[in-house]
Amino acid sequence: MKRILLFLSILIIALTNVWAKKSLSTPPVDAPKITLTVQPGSEFYIDFTGLPDKDITIWVESDGVQTPIEVPKGVEEGQLLQLRTVKDNTIILHGDITKMAIEAQDSQISELNADNNNSIQRVSLYLTPISKVSFRECKNLDLLYVRECATSEIDITGCSSLAELKCNGNEDLSVLDITQCPALEDLECEENQIEVLDFSNCPKIKTVNAAFNAIKSLDFSNNPLLELLDVDSNQIEDLKIDKCTSLKELIIEDNQLTSIDVSKNTKLTKLQIGENRIQEVDLTGLTELIRFHCPKQEGGMEKVDLTPCTKLQYVVTYENRMKELKLPASEDLLRIECYDEELKSLDISKNKNLTELFCENNKIESINTKDHLKLLTFRARNNPLKSLDLSNSPDLVRLEMKGTPSLSEIKVAPELKKANWIELNGCKLDACAIDFVVKALNDTFVEEQPNLKKLFIANNPGTATCNTKAATDKHWVVDAQGDGTGCPQSTLQPILDNIVIGATSKGAYIYSDIAVETTVYTVAGEVATRAIVEGATLLPLAQGSYIVQAGNKAKKIIVQ
């Protein structure tokens, strides 16, 4: 990048670039121009680019002096002008500038005017204090960035080629007229004070990010190509999107909507409608939906049926006083957040790849977690659960059951290799129940984080007599002390002798009284399948010979 330093006054004090002409020729009368109105003494940088196919001359005019600068053709990086005005408050750039960026963080530009300039194509202004920007009738302007510039007025009337407009972070910008921008595809105007956006003459619009404004209504009846709409944190009461059949992401949280119709938006993959006044939503036909967020509806939302959403991966719904949440029979579902509701049941039996579940502060009496081998986080505090079976979740990292006063029975995997946070305080666990959990804890020690692993067991019937020393010996920080007298150690020994391994025509048959890690190998030593087995279990296998390792037993079988 070439750097040109100009001190602009009545005379040119310094010009350090070999491209600066010695002659003071004047620009053609019809040369495109860009006018900057600045404070005298301002200093700022202008990065500009000329034409790709011919040499051009740019004239910089200030304090009555016009300074020509030659720009060779094909220069892609742009030329960096450092301008400093002495007494004049106007700088005019004459010539075929196609791309321009301005940096003036410490100087105030009151106006940038490029009206009727048909050479300018791309302009980027960022963190440059500039009150007014005008590009009226700039027919070839296709990209305009005015980001965090404290701009209060942007005039893009007649910018018929403008495809991308980003004007976010201008707190005083309340009006944005895009009605004469028919080529507009991408609009980012979040964090302003815009009250009205009219897309009726923007048939090509694909992306709209207008979050954190003061918009009250939006009509996208003429915008069938719209793919992403983010109008989070506005004042929207009316939203028309039924013609937006290409819509994939809809984010309308924190508005004033009382209803939402997404029946025509069958390509949606993300739907975020929280913090409105919506009491019901019909998700029929949304088979592509991956993310659904619906927290904190004013007035509540009693039920949500997600069963049509067979590709769903993430669900977030809380503080709705919800009584019923129907989940899809899908193994794609990874994370559920449904806390602070009024749910009495939650069926996750078909969501076997679930990794995170947050369902605290509900009324759930039972939940089937036995087949969730990939579960990492389980948080179900303050529910009337009496028992919990996590024996097939060896990768569990975090378990939070604090304040579950009916919980008297809990099963975990024989070894919790990744766990670092277990909350069982305020439950109904006896010493043996606690000691079974302690026995499964890992003994990993991280020198940089010696207090990383924490076990909470206070306020249980068996707290005082459980074996907390076994936990501290494994480098766990425990919130209470037990003397270890409450549960005979013999009851903790796994009954590994009572394991049966056999074969059927469909696979390996294993029976075990307790949960044991089971691995099936081919005769070549490759892992065919792996599971946590308890009770009678059939592991499907193709015909062939295998070696089954279950607990401390191993046996060769033939499936035929």
TrEMBL record:
Keywords in alphabetical order: Leucine-rich repeat, Repeat
InterPro entries found in the cross-reference section: CDIRP, Leu-rich_rpt, LRR_dom_sf
GO molecular function terms listed in the Swiss-Prot or TrEMBL record: signaling adaptor activity
Protein name (Swiss-Prot/TrEMBL): Leucine rich repeat-containing protein
Phylogenetic classification of the source organism: Bacteria, Pseudomonadati, Bacteroidota, Bacteroidia, Bacteroidales
